[in-house]
Write a structure and sequence with these properties.
With about 270 residues, the protein is α/β, with parallel strands linked by helices. It is about 45% helix and about 15% strand. The protein has a single domain, classed as 3-Layer(aba) Sandwich (Rossmann fold). The protein has 11 helices and 8 strands. The protein binds adenosine-5'-triphosphate and magnesium ion (MG). The site of magnesium ion has 5 residues, from α2.
Protein backbone atom coordinates (compact mmCIF):
# COMPACT_ATOMS: atom_id res chain seq x y z
CA UNK A 1 0.00 0.00 0.00
CA UNK A 2 2.71 2.40 1.10
CA UNK A 3 4.78 1.45 -1.93
CA UNK A 4 1.85 2.13 -4.27
CA UNK A 5 1.31 5.59 -2.76
CA UNK A 6 4.96 6.48 -2.83
CA UNK A 7 5.31 5.33 -6.44
CA UNK A 8 2.29 7.48 -7.35
CA UNK A 9 3.84 10.41 -5.49
CA UNK A 10 7.16 10.04 -7.27
CA UNK A 11 5.34 9.88 -10.63
CA UNK A 12 3.65 13.17 -9.75
CA UNK A 13 6.92 14.76 -8.71
CA UNK A 14 8.54 13.64 -11.96
CA UNK A 15 5.63 15.02 -13.96
CA UNK A 16 5.96 18.38 -12.18
CA UNK A 17 9.70 18.39 -12.83
CA UNK A 18 9.05 17.57 -16.48
CA UNK A 19 6.53 20.43 -16.79
CA UNK A 20 8.99 22.83 -15.19
CA UNK A 21 11.70 21.60 -17.50
CA UNK A 22 9.82 21.89 -20.75
CA UNK A 23 7.85 25.05 -20.05
CA UNK A 24 9.18 28.12 -21.83
CA UNK A 25 7.12 30.37 -19.55
CA UNK A 26 9.03 32.73 -17.31
CA UNK A 27 7.39 34.35 -14.33
CA UNK A 28 7.98 37.96 -13.23
CA UNK A 29 6.36 39.25 -10.06
CA UNK A 30 6.09 43.04 -9.82
CA UNK A 31 6.12 44.39 -6.30
CA UNK A 32 7.08 47.48 -4.29
CA UNK A 33 6.04 47.52 -0.68
CA UNK A 34 4.89 51.13 -0.83
CA UNK A 35 1.63 51.76 -2.65
CA UNK A 36 1.09 54.04 -5.63
CA UNK A 37 4.67 53.97 -6.94
CA UNK A 38 3.73 52.66 -10.39
CA UNK A 39 3.60 48.84 -10.25
CA UNK A 40 0.44 48.50 -12.34
CA UNK A 41 1.60 51.16 -14.80
CA UNK A 42 4.90 49.31 -15.27
CA UNK A 43 3.21 45.90 -15.55
CA UNK A 44 0.78 47.04 -18.24
CA UNK A 45 3.32 49.03 -20.27
CA UNK A 46 6.10 46.45 -20.00
CA UNK A 47 3.67 43.72 -21.07
CA UNK A 48 2.69 45.80 -24.09
CA UNK A 49 6.29 46.54 -25.12
CA UNK A 50 7.29 42.88 -24.65
CA UNK A 51 4.33 41.84 -26.80
CA UNK A 52 5.49 44.24 -29.52
CA UNK A 53 8.82 42.41 -29.48
CA UNK A 54 6.93 39.24 -30.38
CA UNK A 55 6.58 37.67 -26.93
CA UNK A 56 3.30 36.15 -25.78
CA UNK A 57 2.28 37.54 -22.40
CA UNK A 58 -0.20 36.69 -19.66
CA UNK A 59 -0.77 39.34 -17.00
CA UNK A 60 -2.19 38.29 -13.64
CA UNK A 61 -3.89 41.04 -11.67
CA UNK A 62 -2.97 39.85 -8.20
CA UNK A 63 -3.87 43.09 -6.46
CA UNK A 64 -6.52 41.40 -4.39
CA UNK A 65 -9.39 43.76 -3.71
CA UNK A 66 -8.24 46.65 -5.90
CA UNK A 67 -8.12 45.11 -9.34
CA UNK A 68 -7.26 47.76 -11.89
CA UNK A 69 -5.54 45.95 -14.74
CA UNK A 70 -8.85 45.54 -16.57
CA UNK A 71 -9.20 49.32 -16.43
CA UNK A 72 -5.75 49.84 -17.90
CA UNK A 73 -6.56 47.34 -20.67
CA UNK A 74 -10.10 48.71 -20.95
CA UNK A 75 -11.89 45.36 -20.85
CA UNK A 76 -14.63 43.91 -18.69
CA UNK A 77 -13.78 40.27 -18.10
CA UNK A 78 -16.64 38.03 -17.01
CA UNK A 79 -14.41 35.67 -15.07
CA UNK A 80 -11.57 36.46 -12.70
CA UNK A 81 -8.68 34.83 -10.91
CA UNK A 82 -11.04 34.04 -8.07
CA UNK A 83 -13.40 31.92 -10.18
CA UNK A 84 -10.34 29.76 -10.68
CA UNK A 85 -9.10 29.96 -7.09
CA UNK A 86 -12.53 28.98 -5.78
CA UNK A 87 -12.66 26.00 -8.12
CA UNK A 88 -15.52 27.05 -10.41
CA UNK A 89 -13.48 27.46 -13.58
CA UNK A 90 -10.36 26.13 -15.25
CA UNK A 91 -7.33 28.24 -15.96
CA UNK A 92 -8.18 28.49 -19.66
CA UNK A 93 -11.66 29.79 -18.83
CA UNK A 94 -10.43 32.68 -16.69
CA UNK A 95 -7.95 33.94 -19.28
CA UNK A 96 -9.37 36.99 -21.11
CA UNK A 97 -8.16 38.38 -24.39
CA UNK A 98 -7.18 42.04 -24.47
CA UNK A 99 -7.29 44.24 -27.55
CA UNK A 100 -3.57 43.58 -27.94
CA UNK A 101 -2.84 40.41 -29.91
CA UNK A 102 -0.20 38.88 -27.68
CA UNK A 103 -1.51 39.92 -24.26
CA UNK A 104 -3.98 37.94 -22.16
CA UNK A 105 -5.29 38.98 -18.77
CA UNK A 106 -6.26 36.99 -15.73
CA UNK A 107 -8.31 39.68 -14.07
CA UNK A 108 -8.62 40.45 -10.39
CA UNK A 109 -11.81 41.28 -8.62
CA UNK A 110 -12.47 44.60 -6.92
CA UNK A 111 -13.89 44.25 -3.47
CA UNK A 112 -12.57 40.71 -3.03
CA UNK A 113 -11.52 40.17 0.56
CA UNK A 114 -8.45 38.35 1.78
CA UNK A 115 -10.67 36.50 4.21
CA UNK A 116 -12.30 34.74 1.25
CA UNK A 117 -8.99 33.15 0.35
CA UNK A 118 -8.55 30.28 2.73
CA UNK A 119 -5.01 29.46 1.75
CA UNK A 120 -2.39 31.53 -0.04
CA UNK A 121 -0.86 28.31 -1.43
CA UNK A 122 -3.73 28.02 -3.88
CA UNK A 123 -2.09 30.90 -5.78
CA UNK A 124 0.87 28.67 -6.58
CA UNK A 125 -1.42 26.44 -8.61
CA UNK A 126 -2.37 29.15 -11.05
CA UNK A 127 1.24 29.75 -11.95
CA UNK A 128 1.92 26.01 -12.31
CA UNK A 129 -1.14 25.67 -14.55
CA UNK A 130 -0.07 28.61 -16.71
CA UNK A 131 3.38 27.08 -17.05
CA UNK A 132 1.84 23.76 -18.06
CA UNK A 133 -0.14 25.45 -20.85
CA UNK A 134 3.30 26.41 -22.19
CA UNK A 135 1.91 29.08 -24.53
CA UNK A 136 3.17 32.21 -22.79
CA UNK A 137 6.73 33.50 -22.93
CA UNK A 138 6.16 35.63 -19.85
CA UNK A 139 3.65 35.77 -17.03
CA UNK A 140 3.66 39.18 -15.34
CA UNK A 141 2.10 39.26 -11.89
CA UNK A 142 1.01 42.68 -10.65
CA UNK A 143 0.80 42.57 -6.86
CA UNK A 144 -0.80 45.04 -4.51
CA UNK A 145 1.03 47.26 -2.05
CA UNK A 146 2.58 45.71 1.04
CA UNK A 147 4.16 42.35 1.71
CA UNK A 148 1.27 40.32 3.04
CA UNK A 149 1.20 36.52 2.80
CA UNK A 150 -0.47 36.58 -0.64
CA UNK A 151 2.18 38.88 -2.09
CA UNK A 152 4.82 36.70 -0.44
CA UNK A 153 3.31 33.63 -2.06
CA UNK A 154 3.67 35.20 -5.52
CA UNK A 155 7.22 36.27 -4.68
CA UNK A 156 8.16 32.77 -3.60
CA UNK A 157 6.92 31.09 -6.79
CA UNK A 158 8.58 33.53 -9.13
CA UNK A 159 12.16 33.26 -10.38
CA UNK A 160 12.15 36.96 -11.18
CA UNK A 161 11.09 39.64 -8.72
CA UNK A 162 10.93 43.15 -10.11
CA UNK A 163 10.53 45.97 -7.59
CA UNK A 164 9.30 49.40 -8.63
CA UNK A 165 10.30 52.27 -6.40
CA UNK A 166 10.66 56.03 -6.33
CA UNK A 167 13.44 57.97 -4.64
CA UNK A 168 11.05 58.71 -1.77
CA UNK A 169 12.66 57.59 1.54
CA UNK A 170 9.61 55.60 2.60
CA UNK A 171 9.56 53.74 -0.74
CA UNK A 172 13.28 52.98 -0.34
CA UNK A 173 12.75 51.75 3.23
CA UNK A 174 10.19 49.32 1.82
CA UNK A 175 12.61 48.18 -0.89
CA UNK A 176 15.21 47.46 1.78
CA UNK A 177 12.64 45.44 3.77
CA UNK A 178 11.94 43.50 0.57
CA UNK A 179 15.69 42.90 0.05
CA UNK A 180 15.98 41.55 3.58
CA UNK A 181 13.09 39.18 3.02
CA UNK A 182 14.17 37.99 -0.44
CA UNK A 183 17.85 37.59 0.45
CA UNK A 184 16.99 34.56 2.59
CA UNK A 185 15.85 32.45 -0.36
CA UNK A 186 16.39 34.33 -3.61
CA UNK A 187 19.50 35.27 -5.55
CA UNK A 188 18.45 38.51 -7.09
CA UNK A 189 16.12 41.51 -7.04
CA UNK A 190 15.50 43.50 -10.23
CA UNK A 191 14.99 47.18 -9.38
CA UNK A 192 13.36 50.01 -11.39
CA UNK A 193 13.01 53.65 -10.43
CA UNK A 194 9.81 55.45 -11.34
CA UNK A 195 9.32 59.24 -11.22
CA UNK A 196 13.09 59.48 -11.63
CA UNK A 197 14.42 61.73 -14.34
CA UNK A 198 18.02 60.75 -14.23
CA UNK A 199 19.33 57.19 -14.86
CA UNK A 200 22.36 57.85 -12.68
CA UNK A 201 20.29 58.68 -9.58
CA UNK A 202 18.71 55.22 -9.63
CA UNK A 203 22.12 53.64 -10.05
CA UNK A 204 23.62 55.60 -7.14
CA UNK A 205 20.73 54.77 -4.81
CA UNK A 206 20.90 51.09 -5.80
CA UNK A 207 24.60 51.08 -4.84
CA UNK A 208 23.73 52.66 -1.47
CA UNK A 209 21.11 49.96 -0.84
CA UNK A 210 23.65 47.27 -1.75
CA UNK A 211 26.22 48.82 0.63
CA UNK A 212 23.64 48.96 3.39
CA UNK A 213 22.94 45.26 2.80
CA UNK A 214 26.67 44.52 3.03
CA UNK A 215 27.03 46.50 6.27
CA UNK A 216 24.05 44.69 7.75
CA UNK A 217 25.45 41.35 6.58
CA UNK A 218 22.55 40.29 4.40
CA UNK A 219 23.29 37.14 2.41
CA UNK A 220 26.37 38.09 0.38
CA UNK A 221 25.26 36.10 -2.65
CA UNK A 222 22.11 38.19 -2.99
CA UNK A 223 22.30 40.70 -5.86
CA UNK A 224 20.31 43.81 -6.67
CA UNK A 225 20.27 44.56 -10.38
CA UNK A 226 19.26 48.07 -11.38
CA UNK A 227 17.28 47.95 -14.65
CA UNK A 228 16.56 51.61 -15.29
CA UNK A 229 14.47 54.69 -14.64
CA UNK A 230 11.21 56.19 -15.87
CA UNK A 231 10.55 59.93 -15.61
CA UNK A 232 7.29 61.52 -14.54
CA UNK A 233 4.93 62.34 -17.38
CA UNK A 234 1.45 63.83 -17.28
CA UNK A 235 0.70 61.65 -20.33
CA UNK A 236 1.02 58.52 -18.21
CA UNK A 237 -1.72 59.51 -15.78
CA UNK A 238 -3.87 60.99 -18.57
CA UNK A 239 -3.73 57.85 -20.71
CA UNK A 240 -4.55 55.62 -17.75
CA UNK A 241 -7.53 57.85 -16.87
CA UNK A 242 -8.71 57.44 -20.46
CA UNK A 243 -8.25 53.65 -20.19
CA UNK A 244 -5.48 53.69 -22.74
CA UNK A 245 -1.94 52.38 -22.61
CA UNK A 246 0.77 55.02 -22.54
CA UNK A 247 3.39 53.01 -24.48
CA UNK A 248 0.83 52.28 -27.20
CA UNK A 249 -0.40 55.86 -27.51
CA UNK A 250 3.05 57.47 -27.21
CA UNK A 251 5.23 54.88 -28.93
CA UNK A 252 8.10 57.23 -29.69
CA UNK A 253 7.96 59.38 -26.57
CA UNK A 254 11.21 59.73 -24.55
CA UNK A 255 9.55 57.92 -21.65
CA UNK A 256 8.63 54.97 -23.84
CA UNK A 257 12.31 54.88 -24.82
CA UNK A 258 13.21 54.76 -21.11
CA UNK A 259 10.86 51.80 -20.78
CA UNK A 260 12.42 50.12 -23.84
CA UNK A 261 15.90 50.44 -22.31
CA UNK A 262 14.60 49.02 -19.08
CA UNK A 263 13.19 46.05 -21.03
CA UNK A 264 16.54 45.50 -22.81
CA UNK A 265 18.11 45.18 -19.38
CA UNK A 266 15.24 43.03 -18.07
CA UNK A 267 15.67 40.53 -20.90
CA UNK A 268 19.37 40.19 -20.14
CA UNK A 269 18.81 39.67 -16.44
CA UNK A 270 15.80 37.40 -16.42
CA UNK A 271 15.86 33.70 -15.52
N1 LIG B 1 5.96 57.96 -14.40
C1 LIG B 1 4.74 58.41 -14.10
N2 LIG B 1 4.38 59.68 -14.43
C2 LIG B 1 3.14 60.15 -14.13
N3 LIG B 1 2.19 59.43 -13.53
C3 LIG B 1 2.50 58.16 -13.20
C4 LIG B 1 3.78 57.57 -13.46
N4 LIG B 1 3.77 56.31 -13.00
C5 LIG B 1 2.55 56.10 -12.48
N5 LIG B 1 1.79 57.20 -12.58
C6 LIG B 1 0.41 57.40 -12.09
O1 LIG B 1 0.46 57.20 -10.68
C7 LIG B 1 -0.71 56.56 -10.23
C8 LIG B 1 -0.32 55.30 -9.46
O2 LIG B 1 0.29 54.40 -10.36
P1 LIG B 1 -0.02 52.84 -10.29
O3 LIG B 1 -1.46 52.58 -10.13
O4 LIG B 1 0.69 52.21 -11.43
O5 LIG B 1 0.73 52.51 -8.91
P2 LIG B 1 0.70 51.16 -8.10
O6 LIG B 1 2.04 50.98 -7.49
O7 LIG B 1 0.21 50.04 -8.96
O8 LIG B 1 -0.38 51.49 -6.99
P3 LIG B 1 -1.05 50.45 -5.95
O9 LIG B 1 -0.02 50.22 -4.87
O10 LIG B 1 -2.26 51.16 -5.45
O11 LIG B 1 -1.35 49.21 -6.71
C9 LIG B 1 -1.55 56.28 -11.47
O12 LIG B 1 -2.51 57.32 -11.60
C10 LIG B 1 -0.57 56.35 -12.62
O13 LIG B 1 -1.17 56.78 -13.82
MG1 LIG C 1 -1.38 48.69 -8.67
Amino acid sequence: MFNAISSQASKLINLTKKTEHISKTRIITITSGKGGVGKSTFTANISYLLSKRGFKIAVIDADIGLANMQVLFDIKPKLTLFDYVEGRNTISEVISNTRFDNISLIAGKSGYRYANLKNSLVLTRIVDDLKSLNIYDFVLIDTGAGLNEYVQEFLSISNNVLAVTTTDPSALTDVYALMKMLSIKKEKLLLCFNHTKNYQIGDTITNSLVNLAKNNRLNKNFMVKYLGNVSTSANISTTSRLRKLFAHEFASDDITLELQKLIDSLLINIK
